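Consider the following assembly input.
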Amino acid sequence: MIRPPRFFSVRFLFAALVFFLGFRSPGNAASGSIPQRIVSLAPSITETVFALGFGNRLVGVTNHCDYPAEAKRLPKIGDFMSPSLEAVAAKRPDLVIGVGGATDPEKAREIARLGIKITLLSVSSVTEILSSFKRIAELLGDPEAGARLVVKTTVQFDKVKTRVAPAPRRSVLVAVGLRPLVAVGGKNFLDELITLAGGENIAGNAPQPWLNLPDEYVVAKAPQVIIQAGMGSDTGGSARHWSDLKSIPAVKERRVYSYNSDKILRPGPRIDEGLEDLARLIHPECFDPANSGVFKGSLCEGSGP
Amino acid sequence: MKVLDLRKLVLVNGALLVLLILSAAACTLLGPVRLDLSQALTHLFSSNADAEILLRARLPRVLLGIAIGGGMAACGVVLQALLGNPLACPQMLGVSGGASLGGILGIIFFPNWLLPIAGGRLGEISWIPLAAFLGALLSMILVYRFSLFHGRLHPYHLLLSGVILNSFIAAVIMFLNSIVDFYQAQGLLFWLMGSLSTRAYLTVGFIWFYIVVGFLWLWSKGLSLNLITLGEDAAMHLGVEPSALQRQVFIAASLMIGAMVSVSGMIGFVGLMVPHVMRLLIGSDHRLLLPASFLAGGIFLCWADTLARILLAPAELPVGIVTAFFGGPFFLFLLYREGRRSLAL
């Protein structure tokens, strides 16, 4: 009854292999600084993490994070403006990502004091939004995913830009509230989106990102398009609100729209879709397939092949 | 009690009335955008931009400002007399809190509902002011019930229950504000800060009618209010039934405040400051003080709203910021001057 020594050694080697492989696998994750448990403090950040393909690493999101659908099922850590410290800590995250200017800086300091790594990203311009994609991808250990998302977004941007390039600029009012009238000012990525979509924001010279506009200013600036964003489901409310100011071209030409979408309100990975929606509202003629040929008047001349 | 000086009444109020009319005209012509008056007047009823700025964007706003400013100041005068407290103001009664809560519930649950008036022939008005007015009525009844003992309204209970109800409601509002979505929350905060922005002549007309009726009734009680400031016993001896007067004045003022807050939100400081300023300037005979405060409140709010439109143009400031910013220092100055003068005697 002599066991063949070779058999023994093979079994030993196999066991050793399994042992070391089994040991190495968790060791790899622990040794690297790539975060595996992420808490997002803003809907736009949640969307970006999902768009980069790392939604499975999110262990906590805000009450307002509702896109993509999977985000709704994730544990909630409180409000966008004021997350619950306890809820964040309870998720034992190795990375918390918030938005500079929106996340309460005091909360951010307290999270850092708990020894949790926290990064606040500024997303107040299109450039900053694009670099936030890259930054989040770098933090998650996959810079190429970030670069891909930036390319995808800029390619979409360019498509829209070429579409609306032949059309003359239209003056635009984008508002989020009616009573009072809260409009998009300058220093707001939405102001840039309006420009990219072939429009010109009537409150673009204001230093505030959002501002309360008096009615007389809207009448004097005579916007050609009025877009009501971020309101409830009542699509007729906006048109009714302006109906008595017939001197406004947007009212006269029935270009008062309700656009109920977070795509343009969230500085996240859907701004390219949002930009196209805005462009379709501002220059519908540029997206009409019938208009791809020769064109009369001041309308869009088609985007070419 | 001094006999009413008719000459002074006519002189003071006549001067203030002229000033009010001039202010209204000036405030209609001033704004963040240039108004070409000749263009506006030649195309008055067509869809001309200048005409719309004049008739739709500015005039209803100025008219509303005068009504609210005057109404707030008049209510401040009677509340300070009624409660015997110099700090009494329209924001204190609990009514304004109730109106805010009603309005906010309106914004959250039916933001775009419109109520057709006379089958839509007279236009439509928003439900939000109606919800706010309902809130004001409910809180008025609540405060009234909590302060009425043996048929008498007690100023002490009136003041405290009003203040407590207001802070309770403030907590409810903050709670609602933290559960609604982000953009709605912004809207709520803007609404709470108060604004005179309106283009609805129907609403302005309604408020004017309401406030003028309320004011005239309060003015008719001017002599009784004079007596009640002497103390309840003295008033009783001079033939005024204090308990009945207190109840009536409280209800009248509450109804007026409820209607005003429903339309314009909480615009602070006018109701507190204007009565004191006018008292320092013309004395405290309510027959004279009430109309003078009404006119002065109208002038003050009219200008405050114009500044709110101009100062940070194109952005519009909440008018409450302007009233406090310019009213506060002026009031302190008058108070100091008065103190120095009376102590030098």
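The domain at 166-292 of chain A is CATH 3.40.50.1980 (Rossmann fold). Ask yourself how this observation constrains the way the partners meet.
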